[in-house]
Design brief:
about 130 residues; mainly beta; Jelly Rolls; three-stranded antiparallel sheet
Length: about 130
Amino acid sequence: MTTQPTEAGPAIVARVAPAAKPDVAANGYAIKWLFSGETAPGAEQTLGYVVIQPNQKNPLHAHPNCEELLYLISGELDHSFDGQVYRLGPGDAIRVPAGVKHDARCVGSEPATMIVCYSVADRQIVNYGS
């Protein structure tokens, strides 16, 4: 994946995210950051491409400084949100307000692929365990 600066300033194009080496890879899930304050100085949001393998999940966590939007491209996902569980299928999206504990588990037979967007360039995270 490439994120390249232009003559006019910071990077404005990120390419080939699904084939790129992930920035985070642990316990059956992987994240590739497409844009953030770190990958594209001057960015005011964070955008990532996430894959969770079947029967795997990311840890229970919250983002104290930002809202998260998640759009599911493929697969099936159970997304816990402050104690409630929402089943998501391809084309579904969920909004997680700042500070809400949440996690996602792939419940289908194929990997769950999604785009996540955060309302700030320097997304913070607090993990609460698996």
